[in-house]
């Protein structure tokens, strides 16, 4: 899976898969350029996403970023930086 020639990290792939799992009616494909809330996400599914990601990776999920922009790329970037 890649976007604009970039190979996605393991955590990026995991987050995109997790987004599909927490959405009530997920699309067939979720991309880093998607907006979580445009895909049908809401505050409840955002908290579910936080729980899923934090249980799988030693990161603090940036829920504030998700609510501020909805942009999955921003959320993924912050999670990747948290893994350092």
How is this structure best described in words?
This protein is mainly alpha-helical and 84 residues long. The chain contains four helices and two strands, in the order ββαααα. The chain has helices spanning 10-22, 43-56, 63-69, 72-83, and strands at residues 2-3, 6-7. The protein has a two-stranded antiparallel ribbon with strand order 1-2. Helix 1 (10-22) runs antiparallel to helix 2 (43-56) and helix 1 (10-22) crosses helix 4. The two termini are 22 Å apart. 21% of the residues are buried. The model has no long low-confidence stretch (mean pLDDT 91).
Keyphrases for this structure?
single chain, 84 residues, mainly alpha, two-stranded antiparallel sheet, 4 helices, 2 strands, 5% strand, globular
Quick structural overview:
This protein has 84 residues and is mainly α. The chain is built from four helices and two strands; from the N terminus they run ββαααα. The chain has helices at residues 10-22, 43-56, 63-69, 72-83; strands at residues 2-3, 6-7.
Largest sheet: 2 strands, antiparallel
Widest β-sheet, arrangement of strands? 1-2
User: How many runs of DSSP E, i.e. beta strands?
Assistant: 2
Helix content: 40-55%
Shape: globular
Indicate the proportion of strand residues. under 5%
Measured distance between first and last alpha carbons: 22 Å
Look at the helices and sheets and give the structural class: mainly alpha
Number of helices: 4
From the alpha carbons, calculate the radius of gyration and give it in angstroms: 12 Å
What's the order of the H and E elements? EEHHHH
**Overall mean pLDDT:** 91
- Low-pLDDT sequence parts: none
């Amino acid at each position: 899976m890649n976007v604009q020639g970039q190979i996605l990290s393991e955590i990026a792939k995991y987050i995109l898969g997790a987004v599909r799992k927490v959405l009530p009616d997920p699309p067939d494909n979720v991309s880093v350029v998607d907006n979580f809330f445009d895909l049908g996400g809401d505050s409840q599914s955002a908290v579910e996403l936080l729980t899923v990601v934090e249980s799988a990776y030693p990161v603090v999920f940036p829920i504030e970023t998700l609510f501020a922009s909805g942009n999955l790329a921003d959320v993924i970037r912050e999670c990747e930086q948290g893994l350092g």
